[in-house]
Amino acid sequence: MGMFSKVVGYRTEDDDTYKKHAKVLIACKEAGIKILPEETAKYFQWEYPEEYLLKEVLEIEVPNKKINEDDSDIIEVKVSDIPEGVEVLRFVNK
C-alpha cells in the first residue's frame, strides 16, 4: 500500500491580510449581504459570507511537486507558491 503525502500551510489570526478579510466577511454577514466583495471572495476562495471560512482559511494545502528519484520520495515546494500569510508548513505522510 502506498503512502499519501501532502503539504499544509498555516496562517495565524494575527496576519494583517487575514484580519482585513475577516472584518469584511463578518460585516457582510451581519449586514445580510449575500455575496462577498471580489477581493475577499478570492481570499477565502468562496463567494458567500460563511463564518466557517474564518477557521478554514487558516489551514490551506500548499502546492507541491512529488518526485521519485534514486529510490527517494521527494516533496518539492516552491517558496513563491506558498500563499501569503503562511507562517508554518507541515508535511503530512499517511
Number of helices: 3
The helix/strand order is EHHHEEEE
The count of strands amounts to 5
Structural class based on helices, strands and sheet pairing:
alpha+beta
Helix content: 25-40%
* Main β-sheet, spatial strand arrangement: 2-1-5
Residue runs with pLDDT of under 50 for 5 or more positions: none
pLDDT averaged residue by residue: 90
Question: Can you characterise this structure?
Answer:
There is one protein chain. This protein is 29% helix and 30% strand. Helix 1 (16-31) crosses helix 2. It has one domain. The relative contact order is 0.29. The protein has 94 residues and is of the alpha+beta class. The chain is built from 3 helices and 5 strands. The chain has helices at residues 16-31, 38-44, 53-56; strands at 5-11, 59-61, 65-69, 72-76, 86-93. Strand 3 (65-69) and strand 4 (72-76) form a beta hairpin. The strands form 2 sheets. Strands 2-1-5 form a 3-stranded antiparallel beta sheet, with no helix packed on it.
